[in-house]
Amino acid sequence: MSLATDAPATATVAAYPGVEGRLLRAGGREDLAAYRATGGYAAVEDLERLLDEVDEAGVRGRGGAAFPIARKIRTVRDGRGVPVAVANGEEGEPASVKDRWLLRTRPHLVLDGLRLAALMVAADEVHVYVSDPEAAASVTAAVQELRGAGVWDAEVGVTVVEPTYVAGEETAAVQAIDGGPALPTDKPPRPFEEGVKGRPTLINNVETLANLPLVQRLGATGYRELGTVASTGTFLLTLSGCASTGLYEVPFGVTLTEVLTWLGEDPAQVDGVLMGGYFAGVLGRHVLDASLEYDAIKALHSGLGCGAVAVLSSGTCAVEVSAAVMAYFARENAGQCGSCFNGTAAMSAVLEALRDHRAEADDVERLTNWSVKLRGRGACGTLDGATNVAAAVLREFPEAVSTHLDGTCATCAPVEGRPLARAPFAVAVPAA
Amino acid sequence: MKIKLDRTKCDGFGACAKWAPETFDLDEWGYVSLTHSGNVPPEQEDGVRRALLDCPVHAITELHTVVEDAAGVR
Q1: Are A338 and B4 within 8 A, CB to CB?
Q2: Taking residues A107-112, what's their average pLDDT?
Q3: Which H or E element spans position B17?
Q4: What pLDDT, on a 0 to 100 scale, did the predictor assign at position A7?
Q5: How far apart are the first and last CA of chain B?
Q6: Residue A386, Cβ neighbours under 10 Å: how many?
Q7: What's the gap in Å between the CA of B43 and the closest CA on chain A?
Q8: How far is the C-alpha of A49 from the C-alpha of B74, rounded, in Å?
């Protein structure tokens, strides 16, 4: 993987052995007839029972926070005012393709999930929020197909915004749907309290929603046949940084060694990963045998996040990767909170100097302090992601930091001053 | 007293931390975050009220408790 190139890597699509009939599907874009042939848009006999099944199935949010969806549904349903339901497909994360792939390829699976979510919270208004033009066209066509089909008569609004890193944050979605800019707002209130039009709003990532029809079809017990006790079912893994770059559906609980071996990659050639897209920072080789589930990765002081994992192959420097991601945050933050636009710029300056063997021990000490003190000081998660990136490289790759301080990093010494990749490990959305 | 801080509005004037440093914590560039969840301890209320009035960009607002009567009217 050369970080000098910014061309998004092409990607393949495949399901892990033993995974079938869930999120991934071959055969191009699935239309209404094809989706209904799989049992989609099934009638709901008992909403409370369905919600209990979702609870027992243990479905957690796939956008990054891993929050239990049943608890979120109950909170919104019991809130003050008539709820609104939103499918969030704005995938600002360059190293992830799953949301755009789902909307482009399986729009009805997402819309069916949105239907079930809207029914469970008793929403009278539903929206799909996207930035990818192809995803917007696919979901708009799917909404047209639903008109008069007699399976769901809700008027689904489709809001399309410019793609940015911060636009996917749920408060940015609320503000954009309400007619404002797609920029995050400070909390409180959170959208589940006061969201679209000031009403309690259920905002779910599109992969999260795509799991609801699976629970309806399989039941909690069937859904739990894959995954672990606390991270149930499967997740969409966007893998990059290796020849097998692609979108894979894997059960929670597999290890990266198992995934790489399945794909014909050699785990011995892996020095570490960039975990959770750009949000969680780098992890050393010890991640290879960790269970890919929320709690196990959290125990490593990292996060599975949106399920994007970039492999750092031998010859890829963790300091350079971290510097490139930090530069991305310094450039792509919302420019709203002073702690964020100053903090990301300061951390980026130190990491770029470190990459180029110009930083000194005092600089690394300042970076260490910022990685702790700036946490939680932004309205959205961008600054927290940036502090994760700084803290992770200092914690996971102390030897690489040392070789950069004494000017002996064999990978980076020949390329001092080379521009950093603008979007490292960016992946192109696989064809439907 | 309960307050809310909108950090997207803060321009780093620092008046808040001058009047209520126990509630308003500045970073090294002068931008503020709350030291607590927004529930102001009684002994800090006077300073926080002055900070609220002095903030040039109105980044601090007081949240008033919602009381619902028997008819559900707020």
Answers
A1: no
A2: 98
A3: helix B15-19
A4: 67
A5: 19
A6: 31
A7: 23
A8: 33
Q: Using CB atoms, pick whichever of B8, B11, B31 lies closest to residue A186.
A: B8
Q: What is the ipTM of this complex?
A: 0.91
Q: CA A264 to CA A260: how far, in whole Å?
A: 6
DSSP state of A270: E
pLDDT tens digits for A34-66?
999 999 999 999 999 999 999 999 999 999 999
Terminal Cα distance for chain A, rounded: 25
Q: Is the pLDDT of residue A2 over 80?
A: no
Looking at residue A343, the DSSP 8-state letter turns out to be H
* Contacting residues of A for B31, CB less than 8 Å apart: 337-339, 342, 377
Contact A377, A337 (CB under 8 A): yes
The answer to whether A206 and A168 are in contact (CB under 8 A) is no
For the sheet containing A308-313, what is the strand order?
A12-15, A246-251, A234-240, A308-313, A270-275, A282-284
Alpha helix locations (H) across B11-71? Answer: 15-19, 45-54
- Which stretches of A178-233 are assigned E, i.e. beta strand? 201-205
SS3 B2: strand
Q: Which contiguous run of DSSP H or E holds residue A2?
A: none
Cβ-Cβ contacts under 8 Å for A399 (sequence gap 6 or more): none
Cβ of B33 within 8 Å of Cβ of A188? The answer is no
The answer to whether the beta carbons of residues A351 and A380 sit under 8 Å apart is no
Of the pLDDT bands very low, low, confident and very high (cuts 50, 70, 90), residue A3 is low
Tokens (6 digits) for B2: 């309960």
Q: How long is chain B?
A: 74
Taking only the tens place, the pLDDT of each residue in A257-275 is: 999 999 999 999 999 999 9
What b/e readout covers A29-51, taking b as 16+ CB neighbours within 10 angstroms?
bbebeebbebebbeeeeeeeebb
Report residue A363 as tokens. Answer: 């600089």
Whether A338 sits inside 8 A of B11 (CB atoms) is: yes
pLDDT of B72 reads 44
- CB atoms under 10 Å from CB of A181, counted, come to 12
CB A338 within 8 A of CB B29: yes
- The pLDDT of A6-25, averaged and rounded, is 89
Answer yes or no: do A338 and B7 touch at CB < 8 A: yes
Please say if the pLDDT value at position A4 is more than 50. Answer: no
Between CA A90 and CA A205 the distance in angstroms is 9
- Six-digit token pair at A35? 């989706």
Separation of alpha carbons A325 and A322, rounded Å: 5
* Residue A161: HSE in the Cβ half-sphere, 13 Å Cα cutoff: 27
Q: DSSP letter string over A83-120?
A: -EEEEE-----TT--HHHHHHHH-HHHHHHHHHHHHHH
Q: Residues A192, A121: contact at Cβ < 8 Å? A: no
Distance from CA of A121 to the nearest CA of B (A): 21
Instruction: Compute the distance between CA of residue A255 and CA of residue A167 in angstroms, rounded to an integer.
Output: 31
Q: Would you call A338 and B6 a contact, using CB atoms and an 8 Å cutoff?
A: no
